[in-house]
Amino acid sequence: MTIWVTLEMTVQDGAFEALATFLEENLPNVRGFAGALSVTLYHDPTTRTFLIHEEWLSREHHQAYLAFIEERGVMAALLGFMEGPPKVTYYDRMVM
Questions:
Q1: Which of 14, 19, 34, 96 has the greatest number of beta carbons closer than 10 A?
Q2: How far apart are CA 86 and CA 47, in angstroms?
């Protein structure tokens, strides 16, 4: 059963262009990581809210990815564009 993960955060004022460049360079790594099924990005320029919506094979796959990017400084670099840490939410797919 797959899961959805959302990461919601606020981009620092004036940092969106640099964030976009960072994401262009790093998104292929996310999409190619074991267990990653999809990654979609959303941005509200009025509120500077930034949402990452991901689908993974499992929570364990996603957490392995988080450990991988934390060890390599990628998460710290991403958070450098933000006003604070992300709100991370996991959703289990319901089968009905």
A1: 19
A2: 15
- State the residue for tokens 């190619």: 32
Q: What is the distance between the alpha carbons of residues 72 and 69, in angstroms, rounded to a whole number?
A: 5
Q: Token pair 């564009």 is at which residue? A: 81
Question: DSSP letters along 42-87, please?
Answer: EEETTTTEEEEEEEES-HHHHHHHHHHHHHTTHHHHHHTTBSS--E
- Largest pairwise CA distance in the chain: 44
pTM: 0.89
pLDDT below 70 — which residues of the chain?
A: none
Residue type, position 22, single letter: F
